[in-house]
Amino acid sequence: MQFDPFVIPFNIGLYFILFYAVIRSIIWFRDLSRPDKLRLQRGFFGRAFGQSLKEIFLESLIHKKILKTNSRLGYMHMSLAFGWFLLILFGTIEADFFGEKHLNPPYKSIFFRFFNPDHGRTELEAAYAFLMDIILAFILSGLVLAIIKRFSSKVVGMKKTTRLKTIDKIALTSLWVIFPARLIAESLTSGAYGTGSFLTGTLGGWLVTFLPAKQVAYPFWWLYSLSLGTFFLLLPLTRYLHIPTELFLIFMRNSGIRTGDKAGSFSEVQVYSCSSCGICIDQCQMNYAAGINDMQSAYLIKAIRNNEDTSMIAHNCLMCSRCDQKCPVGIELSAIRMIQRRSVEAENEFKNIWKGYFRKRNNIAQEKVNGQPAYKYLPEINSEKADILYFAGCMTHLTPAIKKSMIKILDASGLNWSFIDEEGGVCCGRPLMLAGNDKEARELINYNSQLIWKSGAHTLVTSCPICYKVFKESYYIDVEVLHHTQYIKNLIDEGAVKMNFLHKRVAYHTPCELGRNSGIYKEPKDVIRHVAILENTGYDDENSLCCGGSLGNLKISHQKKHQIALDAAARLTTKNPEALITACPLCKKTFLSATETRVADIAEIVAEAIITPQARKRQYQHSLSVKESADIS
Amino acid sequence: MEKFGFTLSKGRVINYDSNDRSIADYILQMEPSFRSCIECGACAATCTAGNFTEFSLREFNILMKRGENDQVREHIRKCMLCGKCSLVCPRGVNTRNVIVLAKEAFQKSESYAI
User: Fold this and answer.
1) Residue A458: Cβ within 10 Å count
2) pTM of the model
């Protein structure tokens, strides 16, 4: 039997990590809710399984999304992941095919050259050794990039890279040692026996000229085995746990499991799937416009993994979801951040290293304040009967131009509508939710829901995307909720309002809450095209910017907000449009002080262009009189 | 003795030494912009909650800085965090965070827990 004591560290590491993976998966599966378990079972026998295999190949091995965003960073990830996979795959085939017997234990293929130093003399063997050398060279090229990136992130096209903790550094070093150790060990053994291909053979041939190759090779085989073993043992404590976890994540997501609003298996799988690639850091406006560079999603996830206090990081975010959109792993970062906002402070347990292997999940905040309702003072509900309700929202009350425009449009439509918060209504509840106070938010939601029910309306129109999102997602009301851009679009389609064309060049800023957070991109642009000439800004749809005024961030200072607004406004107005159009009162208010360009809401330009019924009547009478006079003459 | 309806009015002395200013200190430490408030009252004027009930951030600000926390403690939960106050503030005070921190401070201090 081929055996040598140096394979022991590798074996310990490998069997430990396999055992750990099994235990961990069982715990994750056990903690899933019942519907999610069913989804997973259905997914296993359904299409989700095939889809997942395809996605695993494209994302976990090839890293297609990272390649698309940043080719050099993508190459680095691909060469390490795909290269290592190929090395294991072809190594196993090699050991099976050329080894002394079939079905070998894993260490035989990993340390194949040590046990079969004479391998590589015949033509077929040499060709195979050549292939193995190519794969090793492929990995080493990625490794060189990775090492350079650690010291100068700009080389791979990244502005910033993530900071590491000590245990990450140890794991990183062991990962860096693995492949050079393999190269030197294989080269020395090959050199001693005169085998090996273009890489190991050549290097070995040169080393053997001044080194006693056989004796020196042995410590390097030890080093190779030790670095592998250390890496596997530390894997569960470091960010490298993303390598096995991402496979679970892809399968769970394809089976239809979503994060929801409580910490559970799926959110934990997502947390461990983050590879800290740092793409979210480069995307974050708070980073590049305001210089806040310690609260991006990669750091939040790291803090969660380390059971650190996340309250400051979790609340210091605009919730614009730009990072969600760009995350190559597809982690629902905003949803995870919301879970952290709701939860109580974590105990710092990471000091005990053993607890790192099986992290205790954060408790969901029981109730942050006592059971007394907070808004007992609200007046009794008596709402006007109407078909269509208009809810302006707090922010629209601060931008009266939008309110007046909407009144004009609603009047022009000739429908039976009522303004429910004309005298200043009750907040929709979303700001409280964003601050993690769901219980209080629920009180306001109940109040507003009753107000809407009692009016007997079938449609609710709101001017504020913040209100729109919460009405759409968290209210249990049987009315159609529309943002005013959607409503105006409907009016135009039905021909209920007529408009002049304004011949203005305008740029459109997609509000985060309307765009990325609610998925409404098309309607606002259609409405604008109806009344003005819409120009692209380069920050359209999913790639849109945040104005900086977001209510999502509790901690950011006024000055930093203004910096973000200045930066965003400058980017949006590079082509000097006549007006910067937005669909959110808060965005409008924020941009007003940040740019010289006129800032207006869609409702305002529509109201400007609209032909009111009176005007239409006048036009009609005018045409009649013209006709009459023509008849007379 | 005959009662004529006259009483001694309560002392209105603000004793900064004996008053508990821990709540204001906590807020000032976590949110330094609280210091730059000029008590103009714009926040109270625009307040959504203030439209329905007695709720004035300007007043609470003065009271907390004086260390007279009882009234603040009673009313602070009425805020809806809608954020209008922070938009109208002429000094850029992060008013929403002030409210959140005040609640947090009351929660943390045993004598005041709400």
Assistant:
1) 12
2) 0.89
